[in-house]
Amino acid sequence: MSVVTADVIVIGLGAMGGAAFRSLASRGLRVVGIEQHSVPHALGSSHGETRIIRKAYFEHPDYVPLLRRSYELWGDLETAIGQQLYHETGLLLIGPPDGEAIPGARLAAERHGIAIEPLSAADLRRRFPWITPREGDECLFEPEAGFLEVERCVEAQVRDGERRQGTAACGERVVEWSAEGRVARVVTDRGRYEAGALVIAGGPWASRLLHEMHVPLEVVRKPVVWFRSRPGAVAPTCGFFVEQEGRAFYGVPSLERGMTKLAEHTGGNVVEDADRVDRLLRSEDVGPLQTFAETTLRDIDSTPVRSAVCLYTLTPDRHFVIDQHPGHANVAVACGFSGHGFKFAPVVGEALADLAVRGESALPIGFLQNRSWT
Ligand SMILES: Cc1cc2nc3c(=O)[nH]c(=O)nc-3n(C[C@H](O)[C@H](O)[C@H](O)COP(=O)(O)OP(=O)(O)OC[C@H]3O[C@@H](n4cnc5c(N)ncnc54)[C@H](O)[C@@H]3O)c2cc1C
What we know:
One of its GO terms (molecular function) is flavin adenine dinucleotide binding. This is Monomeric sarcosine oxidase. Its EC number is 1.5.3.1. It comes from Caulifigura coniformis. The protein is of the alpha+beta class. The protein folds into 2 domains: 3-49 and 151-214 and 319-368, FAD/NAD(P)-binding domain (3-Layer(bba) Sandwich), CATH 3.50.50.60; 74-149 and 218-314, D-Amino Acid Oxidase, subunit A, domain 2 (D-Amino Acid Oxidase, Chain A, domain 2, 2-Layer Sandwich), CATH 3.30.9.10. Helices cover 25% and strands 33% of the residues. The protein is built from 8 helices and 20 strands. The protein has helices spanning 15-26, 64-81, 101-112, 121-127, 150-163, 206-209, 283-296, 345-358; strands spanning 3-11, 31-35, 50-53, 86-87, 91-95, 117-118, 138-142, 146-149, 167-170, 174-180, 183-188, 192-200, 218-229, 239-244, 247-253, 259-264, 269-270, 300-314, 321-325, 328-335. Strands 5, 6, 7, 13, 14, 15, 16, 17 and 18 form a 9-stranded mixed β-sheet that branches. Strands 1, 2, 9, 10, 11, 12, 19 and 20 form an 8-stranded mixed β-sheet that branches. The longest helix is centred in the first third of the chain and has 18 residues, at 64-81. The model has no long low-confidence stretch (mean pLDDT 97). The chain binds flavin-adenine dinucleotide. Flavin-adenine dinucleotide (FAD) binds at residues 11-17, 34-37, 44-46, 48, 51-52, 173-174, 201-205, 209, 222, 224, 263, 310-312, 337, 339-343.
């Protein structure tokens, strides 16, 4: 069997691998991306119409410089394809003053000079009458936030990479890879590849590709459900993230008028094998969302209209892994995006391309490298 050669091979053309593919192709490198399914597809972590993007990052302020670069790169992708992918609706953050979201967003906003508006209960009623917070909750509005059209973003990254002479091999599963000095070899169920460097971005399948790294990843099943607003009611006009009683729910206005996508960020059942996921909506998936809708979004009809099941890949501390493979300097890896990675995809792609080709990146990813799991 003949061997296909390239400068860099990318395993996985989902959010992160697709971004690395585009970044490498835009540097004039010969890049081959290998994807076991199609681009996009609905079996991994990057489907379900929309993804929230925001800057006042409560998870950790060190993500903010990466987010700023990500906003620039999403804009660059929109310009390259001549189409809108980002919708700046703003985002409401609601929760207890001593929770994770409100103090974390305030800290990130103060440290990095990000605009956030504290809203009183009266402000909220006037500007966002469709949502009712709990007694004692605080509320912040971040105007420079919104949502990305997830499948269109994934597709646009790869198509733009192909336009720049990248080659995408879809429907082909990587079964083995190895690296030795400046050579990386990949074997798929259809062929063999060889390159100077390798990027591995396997999403929920990452553990299979990175078993030597021993990253304790946990894959979790995450249902999302679309609900319609009652006839004549004002439907949610922006994204929202609500922390209540140790749980977190969020919602995004659908592209279909009058519909809202709801999901729970916390919780979820662990999946042992990402190839065998129950994709049907269960009553225990819908119940908590209906209760949330009934108490917090009173004008939403709690009959589900449609649903999808997606996968989170969690690290123990919920922070990402973006690094060089510890055993191979020419292999860059990204995994464990813990349910909040999509907004970062283009900057992760840029970092992965830097790491694979140069062994280092000027991007501030130090806090996501050399992670210890003991
Ligand atoms: C319901 C839900 C809601 C979310 N909401 C948000 C949000 O609002 N904002 C946000 O920023 N993030 C959000 N996230 C998280 C974000 O979507 C993920 O962090 C991100 O999509 C992960 O991208 P990935 O490239 O790691 O995985 P994927 O996009 O799944 O890509 C991995 C790819 O690798 C391929 N692959 C794996 N193994 C092989 C192999 N052996 N051979 C060939 N190909 C292979 C897979 O087929 C897949 O296409 C959400 C996630 C979910 C599930």
